[in-house]
Design goal:
Helices cover 4% and strands 40% of the residues. It has four helices and 33 strands. The strands form seven sheets. The chain has a six-stranded mixed beta sheet, with no helix packed on it. Strands 13, 15, 16, 19, 21 and 22 form a six-stranded mixed beta sheet that branches.
Amino acid sequence: MAELSRRSLIVGSVVATAGALIPLARSLTSAETLPDGPPLPELPELDLSTPAGKPGTTTAVLTAGSAENGRLAYNGTGPGPGPLLRLREGDRIRLTFRNDLDAPSSLHLHGVPMPPATDAPLTHLAPGDSDVREFTLPPGSAGTYWYHPHAHGDVERQLLAGLAGPVVVTGPLDDQPALRDADDRLLMFTRTGREITVNGATRPVITARSGRTRLRLLNATAGDHLLLALTREDKRTTAHLIATDSGLLQRPVPLIEILLAPGERAELLVETTTPGRLTLRSLPYSVYGAGGQRTPDRPMAGIDIPADLSPLELPTSLLPVEKIDLSTAVRTRRLVLDGAGDGSYTIDGRTFAHDRVDLRATQGTLEIWEVENTHTMDHPFHLHSYAVQVLARDGKAEPFRAWRDTVNIPAGTTVRLAVPFRGDGGRTVYHCHIAAHEDLGMMGILEVAEADARPGEVPASDR
């Protein structure tokens, strides 16, 4: 596959753009020098246990509480992200969440496959309350996920104060040599004041331990789009995308840059056999389109490559990704993202209402959603509980199949999604993953009825 052009590969979507491919050797301008920061912090792992009398069930506890300097933290960690929840396909998990904040909060395991009733995105816990999530990780769910609050109206504040943590799920493919022998590194981006940090550190440095490094990239900021590229002496180098939000791809995809909108994840394989320094950069990007103000070009992390690392083979295939039969779709919907002009944000002209169901669907069916952004800036669109596939952007087909839970919708564009309602039904939400936009109304409620609940009835919201 040819390498993808600038702004073309977006985790959650691929956009065809006018103009020529960017040469790999193009020199970057206005680039800051990367100082030697601290070694990349390895995040502490959440304690897991198997209770007596419950073989096969793993238990854990996450507590949201106060930390130093007015920060918030899970399980007292800080100043970086919460503890890493490391799981395995097939695990049965019983996770207790306790709210020790002085405000309502909740826990959302972003992208982790679970029924709407278990995800419970509309449930807010009062200070001192707790609840339990119990679920089993299905085959094919290996990937990089995260957890964060979902207390509508207060999500941005809690995220910015420090409430976010990573989830890594492994599976059989992680035991194969091409992935097992790679240097597996999690890079979780969060914002602390004016800085975007990586695992809580500013511009950390990785010392490669293998001839190929696996970068698990997780944008856990409240609202920062990150256009990421790897450079050597200010020239871009090729990486291979192996996974998006909801798991592994069918085969590695070569790229020279990738856009991570808030909430999105990507996994890259990077060759690390040539001694020297690679720099992971956040390149200039505008959420207001080509003419808008762009973020600065800034280094995020360094990768130091020793001289004695042996090459590691790039896998030629990963996990089959289903080709959805679109002829079975029961309907096509159009959702419109916009702003109301009064500081609020809307979906289909309405701000969020806790007691209003905005869309109704039926378990076991397939729908096509055309999500149109008529607003002036990008909106990352996130659907809970049901993974989607991007079919096209402004009529241009997606170049490869992938399962996703968060899809960036640039201003003035329409993205066409395949949405299969598999697994349990129930009431869940869809929203913009810029936390301030969600807090200010850009969220809706989806109710998926059990397949035999109302046989033959057409949902009232069908349009």
